[in-house]
Design a protein that fits this description.
2 copies of one chain form a homodimer. With 448 residues, chain A is an alpha/beta fold. Chain A has 3 domains: 169 residues, FAD/NAD(P)-binding domain (3-Layer(bba) Sandwich); 125 residues, FAD/NAD(P)-binding domain, CATH 3.50.50.60; 106 residues, Enolase-like, domain 1. Chain A contains 12 helices and 25 strands. In chain A, the strands form 7 sheets. The first copy, chain A, has a 5-stranded parallel β-sheet with strand order 3-2-1-7-18. The longest helix of chain A is centred in the last third of the chain and has 17 residues. Chain A is globular. The N and C termini of chain A lie far apart (60 Å). At the A-B interface, helix 8, strand 21, strand 22 and helix 10 of A face helix 8, strand 21, strand 22 and helix 10 of B. Chains A, B: This is NAD(P)H:elemental sulfur oxidoreductase.
């Protein structure tokens, strides 16, 4: 009877546990979770903070009890894995002040990512908050309750989504992003500016290209954000400058970091350390366009990586994770932002020659009421292969445009392939020339 | 200077004209349209009848004057092409009671489809209406104005969409479909029943598996629909039993009908008759899953076929139309129905062995407000290749699920490919396990 220990009860860990159980009814499976919730959805935190989602506990798909009962997986919550011994094949877990040792034949490290905390003066002041787990929601809500001005440091996904949440709560929001644009890892400047305009329109005091250099306090709490350009009074700060892999335990287990700084794994989610797997935000992935290692920590791939790791842990190389193409979605109020593949900046960094098209279109037939504007940017390489797509539009259907493009990108479609793709039409759902097809046509430079 | 005559000013004809002009600034291009509108959108008719679209003239993208002025294409409207002489290379056109002869070097037949009118007693009675062109909207509106009960004969796209329009106008609607289900060419019985339930819930008096055998009149107008099972009093009838290719002129030009009854064309949209092309609803297409000829008359492929025909007419085999996978979308109020690839019935008819999964899921994270239920059916062949997907859900985003699946189907994706597709996620746009990925997982029968 194989003993599987999984460190982490989030997307990757829980998927790994469920898959291992499915493939091996006899395995002894223990899942160790540092917080109180498993199968939790950190992506829902901004909506639980804003109150759009009434109960933060609904961000948990299964309770630990359900998981134990329905899947016969032992779940240790509020249990901090503090050490791994790869020779003795043990994990040391501290729970309720007591330490215990778990024995494993297969170890799956699914410890996720944690917020980056930049080393700048005052960063440890009370009132500076980070966003990581649904467990954090009650604290975030109570900390923010009496704040009237909140500074957000970082214009990535969390920064943008928390800005919506805070406006929703009636706060004044000042957002600082060191780079020249919002969502710098996802969008090029031209597309990002559409989001910036929307944020300004909704009242966000946006400071792009402005580096935070210090936090100042008053009465023992944060009271101001200081940048290269000025000082801004705030009541609270959301620190959302990025995340990093929470790789300590993986390293203790004998895994290595890859070139991206996340745990190196092969397509079986094996770390190279005997019988040690890593999955989810802690692990590197392969980018299917470039074949290179990337670190893009997102829930959908975490789930699938967990599934691969869990299956392989009990059955040995039954599944392979093929990698990602960098599909990601966010929204700011009614503006949906989605992307897949490579951005212009990414292509440039890799020295890939590309051509691009940027169009503005509509989400429905021009005569049908309720259409929304949509901006589409599409990149292709010199052979015509689609490299990436960025989409922004005031209708949630545009999130799916990135999905259509993602399938095209990961399956090597060319501009011509996408132009001739049999995308559906009726006036209430799309224009007869779908925005993606129009973008492909423009990108063809007169060939289509 | 090449002389191009295009018969038909709809999707295919207008695209052909625009493309020919783009590739050959010097060509003499004449487009002959029987009605008063070009670049018109018949798919918008139900919404113009219901009043959702206020002005039926907005169903026209370009006016004939705009087309003439901006593209230098001669447009003859209200001009009926009545004959083609393939030896003399002429088209005879009747306009305003006068006949004229156009000379062509290249002929593009884009005459579209026309409603089938079954040969049953009383079918010629006044008050029995068909739906074909935006030009028909004023007549449809005035004919329907004083009707309180309308019989719809046919449960295809037009029947379903007109049912919505008529309910919108406060009419009582009785819908008759000979087959055992709605949208029989698009959906299998299990998925179609979801639509049937919705139609009944909205008040449609639905008669499935009930063949209309006669129309009876009173005072010289239709007053009853007679089926095998009963007689139903109606004030008007919408006859929507299907369409057929309007192929007479193509045949006169020397084209042949293919096995489907539509005009046979190759991938260049050549009919085989010298310098005669056909495009759009009049022409057959290749189904990219089966490689067989099909006749699926829809606007998106008509546009692209027109573009291929127009380009090739002036430049010779510069473009190829790769065919379709049968993607189609409709809606009934808030229930969106989309499909791509093969249905179970289609697979059975072709003797293709398949496996299937039918799931019910949600369009957003389970904790995010405003999610809608969605039903997904997915078919794969014995090698695991995805054959087709049917989707019904109460959110227009599900239309795009069929698009995602369409790209997967036409690019030969397997169940595993789709499971690992990098489809995006955020709680407001999709669940973390996207319904298509869940369907693929279920279809894998435990492998994923």
């Amino acid at each position: 009877m194989v003993r599987v220990v999984i460190i982490g009860g989030g997307a990757a860990g829980a998927s790994a546990a469920a898959r291992a159980r499915r493939l091996d009814p006899n395995a002894e499976i223990v899942m160790v979770e540092a917080g109180s919730m498993i199968t939790h959805a950190p992506c829902g935190i901004p909506y639980a903070v804003s109150g759009v989602v009434a109960d933060y506990k609904s961000l948990m798909t299964y309770t630990p009890e359900e998981f134990e009962k329905e899947r016969n997986i032992k779940v240790l919550i509020n249990a901090k894995a503090v050490d791994v011994d790869p020779d003795k094949r043990t994990v040391t877990v501290v729970r309720g002040g007591r330490s215990e040792t778990l024995q494993w034949d297969k170890l799956i490290v699914a410890t996720g990512a944690k917020p980056l905390v930049p080393k700048i003066p005052g960063v440890d002041l009370p009132g500076i908050l980070t966003v990581r787990l649904p467990d954090d929601v009650p604290l975030l809500k109570s900390e923010l309750a009496d704040a009237s001005t909140v500074g957000i440091v970082g214009g990535g996904y969390i920064g943008v989504e928390m800005a919506e949440a805070l406006l929703h709560l009636g706060k004044k929001v000042i957002l600082f992003e060191m780079m020249d644009r919002l969502l710098p890892a996802a969008l090029d400047a031209d597309m990002s500016s559409v989001l910036a305009e929307e944020m300004k329109k909704r009242g966000v005091d946006l400071h792009l290209g402005e580096k935070v250099v210090e936090f100042r306090g008053f009465g023992g709490k944060v009271s101001a954000v200081v940048t290269e350009k000025g000082e801004y009074k705030v009541d609270k700060v959301i620190l959302a400058v990025g995340v990093k892999p929470d790789a300590d335990l993986a390293l203790k287990a004998g895994a290595k970091l890859g070139e991206t700084g996340a745990v190196a794994v092969n397509e079986y989610m094996e770390t190279g350390a005997p019988d040690v797997y890593a999955a989810g935000d802690v692990a590197e992935k392969v980018h299917r366009v470039t074949g290179r290692k990337v670190w893009i920590p997102l829930a959908p791939s975490a789930n699938k990586e967990g599934q691969v790791a869990g299956g392989n842990a009990v059955k040995g190389r039954v599944l392979r994770f093929p990698g990602v193409v960098g599909t990601a979605v966010t929204k700011f109020f009614d503006l949906y932002v989605a992307r897949t593949g490579l951005s212009e900046e990414e292509a440039q960094k890799l020295g890939i020659k590309y051509d691009k098209a940027v169009i503005k279109a509509r989400t429905k037939a021009q005569y049908y009421p309720g259409y929304a504007p949509v901006h589409v940017k599409m990149l292709a390489d010199q052979s015509g292969r689609i490299l990436g797509v960025q989409v922004l539009g005031w209708d949630h259907i545009v999130a799916a445009y990135a999905d259509i493009a993602a399938v095209a990108v990961e399956r090597g479609a060319t501009i011509e392939d996408l132009f001739f793709a049999d995308i559906g039409y009726m006036p209430a759902t799309a224009p007869v020339w779908h925005p993606l097809i129009v973008a492909a046509r423009v990108l063809s430079r007169g060939k289509l």
